[in-house]
Design a protein that fits this description.
Two copies of one chain form a homodimer.
Chain A lengths: L23 H5 L1 H10 L1 E5 L4 E3 L7 E7 L2 E6 L5 E7 L4 E2 L10 E4 L3 E7 H9 L2 H27 L2 H18 L7 E2 L4 H8 L3 H13 L3 E4 L2 E4 L12
Antiparallel strand pairs in A: 1-8, 2-7, 3-6, 3-8, 4-5, 4-7, 9-11, 10-11
The first copy, chain A, binds a DNA duplex (30 and 30 nucleotides) through helix 7.
DNA sequence: CGCACGGATTGATGTGTATCAATGCGCGTC
DNA sequence: GACGCGCATTGATACACATCAATCCGTGCG
């Protein structure tokens, strides 16, 4: 076994076509799901709490139940790159063997289901379909990582933001949330660290988009007005 | 089954500790490896040839035998983001289900082993350890993607280049290649599209590094002089 | 109720890269 | 051997974004 994260935010053209059964655990089905759930425990985290840090031994797997968790990589100095945001149903570090390669922190109060790695491995050992389910999850995560690389390397600030926001909205829609007034629980700094920008640029670019009538900024929320922002990147 | 790529280039702090048995196929061991190899075929590609394109149905898995292959994502207009370079032993798209989410092209003449997805699935179906081997590969690929996201989002041109070059060298070393005069078979444009820069910036930055005595530029090759370039990013 | 504090916003300014444009260079072709 | 072509290099210039610096504002707290 090894590692897995599963958070998406940038454009997701092909991966994740859609998903009724929200999370991994749900897709396992009734009995398996209950049995597996029982092997783990629910842990509550307060805002800013750290679930795990990069470099630490990866002793357990996580699944967000409530709240928002961000996965990130940092360096000595301070530079931070948020690799993704995890919403309820998302699995973290299922396949990580050895050490965590990212850190995870709760953005706000969060409820997380956690299971020791050995227990999960034992559970999966006589359920072959679990492994292939994991492979599917990881494949989606890799495709998502490709999206993010494209965004980080080849998009300008404005496009990074519009794509991020529409993608974030789509994820919440998939969770059945009301996104008329899109909730944006992460800070401007989090968004900046996710998109490879600075806080100031994020603010200014959002303000510019608001002036242009693309969106409306409210405390903790953003209303997406024009559908143009979609501008879904396609294939060549 | 789903998807997998497995190419790395940026810094790789924790993932891929080391690997004697170079590739996935080799690690399978004698009999399995021979049987699996027999199920596929070897295909030769000329420079610039396309192995597959993003959006196309992913009918087969690939493993580079000789040469260099690049994986990339493009957009309507032309923007391109190279997500990775695949060297001999690297597996491409093992777990992709549905459609390819990236394209692949041979950088120079390349020899690639290819196997229809169904055949591979059948082979793996009664060899459970194959799946977990795939999970391990994918986990490494995800960790690698995180490195690349960090580089794309948080590093300046100079650091992107030095990290890329040392990382590239390390990969070749792992393959047992002589890297005294580091071969750099990919074009400046490829490097630029990988690091989120332009060709001109890559040239200029390399020239600057040469002037500073960090490296020496030769046609198709680069000699890394100062070990400082290492500057291995660590954890916080 | 006034204060302190961190996040958000806006402004002034600097700079790292992109962009536009030439030139050079290696190589295959006729 | 001259031409053509793509890649590499270098220069001049523009601009997007970072940086530095205030101010504003919502919220918790004394």
């Amino acid at each position: 076994m090894t590692k897995l994260m599963a958070a998406s935010s940038f454009a997701t053209p092909c991966a994740n076509a859609a998903a009724q059964p929200v999370g991994f655990l749900e897709r396992l089905g009734g009995t398996d799901q209950r049995q597996l759930m029982a092997l783990g425990e629910r842990v509550a985290y307060a805002a800013q709490d750290i679930l795990f840090k990069q470099g630490m031994p990866a002793g357990r797997c996580f699944s967000v139940v409530e709240g928002l968790v961000c996965l990130y990589r940092t360096e000595l100095n301070s530079r931070r790159q948020i690799t993704g945001f995890a919403l309820p149903g998302d699995i973290l570090e299922i396949a990580t063997q050895g050490h965590h390669d990212v850190s995870a922190a709760a953005i706000g109060p969060a409820l997380v289901w956690e299971i020791p790695r050995e227990k999960f491995a034992l559970f999966a050992s006589h359920r072959p379909y679990v492994l292939s389910e994991i492979v599917t999850l990881m494949a989606a995560e890799i495709a998502d990582a490709h999206d993010k690389m494209f965004s980080l390397g080849r998009r300008a600030a404005e496009e990074k933001l519009t794509v991020f926001l529409t993608s974030w909205r789509d994820r919440l829609v998939r969770l059945g949330r009301d996104v008329d007034l899109l909730p944006v629980p992460m800070s401007r700094r989090d968004i900046a660290d996710h998109l490879g920008l600075t806080v100031e640029t994020v603010c200014r670019t959002l303000a510019k988009l608001e002036r242009r009538g693309v969106l409306e900024i409210l405390p903790g929320r953003i209303r997406l007005l024009d559908s143009e922002a979609a501008a879904a990147p396609a294939f060549a």
